Amino acid sequence: MLWSDPENKPPKELRDAQDMLRRAGLVLALAMVIAMLVLGAR
């Protein structure tokens, strides 16, 4: 890659959206684990 090439960074909006999706996925996974524990404890 040449030093004159533009940096290959996604725009801020895209990075923000990716962060939000990542957080939503983590929350969803955590909620699934808690639901499994609650249902399994009955």
TrEMBL record:
Keywords for the protein's UniProt record, in alphabetical order: Membrane, Transmembrane, Transmembrane helix
Top-rank taxon: Bacteria
InterPro entries linked: MmpB-like
UniProt-listed Pfam families: MmpB
TM regions (residue ranges): 20-41
Designated name of the protein: Uncharacterized protein
